[in-house]
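[audit] Reproducing an earlier prediction to check determinism. Same input, same settings, fresh worker. If the tokens differ from the archived copy the diff job will pick it up downstream; this log only records the rerun itself.
[audit] input (115 residues):
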Amino acid sequence: MNMIINSIEGMILNAKSYAKDGKTDLVEFCLKPIYEIFEKNSVENRESIEAEIRNVRIMAYSNLLKSYVSKIEKCNNAIFSKVISQTLNKIKSLDPNLGLVKEKELENYLAMTGQ
């Protein structure tokens, strides 16, 4: 059982390293095997592991959103409006309250920059 927990912790650490850069596809790739482990094994502390996975995903999508916002300054914001909306929706699906906070932060930022 310790080997399974160690493997899961390693996968989460890998996902966190990608989450810092907003690389959501690599985060999901790192986390997918954990659910396969859950299907085949009874894992202690599953709820806390799932909460940590959720937090890693939120971090990844929040950082992705930040990268999109920084690109708005350099480009036409219409290009990014769809991906920003999709990213906000993903954050809202993971944590509705945080999604609303991020949406308000984005609105304030766009208002300040005249975008």
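[audit] rerun output stored. Observation attached for the diff report: The two ends are 53 Å apart (CA to CA).
[audit] end
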